[in-house]
Write the structure tokens for this entry.
Amino acid sequence: MKDAIGFMGPRAFVGQYRGFYLLGEIPDANEDDFVTGVISIGKLAEISRKKKASTIPPPGYTEGDLIIESKVLEFGRFVVELKKHTNNAWADWISIGRAANNDLAIKHTTISKLHARIHVEQTTDGAESITRHWLTDTDSTMGTVVNKKRLGSSTPRLIELGDIIDFGDVECVFVDASRLFEELTKLS
């Protein structure tokens, strides 16, 4: 992804990496201590999409699915696409937690096994398609905080682009591809 910034303009980048992401920082990062999605990282990850190779597939992936690979860019930072894994439980929402069976598995001591969930709501307003993301804390031990306000357990909250989300001690910013391009440009 960092290489893409060097030769792509913002429009081409957004076209290729269309979607929503969590861009964040993990305290006391260590590559062996932090896993998110199918990415094992302790640093800002460069995302590339490719067809699954003939290696052992990650859980929940079927033949022909796109997988995410990572490359280390900067200590303590990460980026991950908010994406529902196929064949994972809880079809209506993206699960976030320490357990490996979550859609986004964040292996950190301040993250509960099932810490939070995000429900993606797709609606249309005339010809315009609208995507909303509802974040809910699942009675996690260390809590979920959005813009310095702690969420009540099992109380959905609409999150907007640019919101700062803390899952325990792991801080993230909710971004789309356009904002991700801007943030990665600053790191280049």
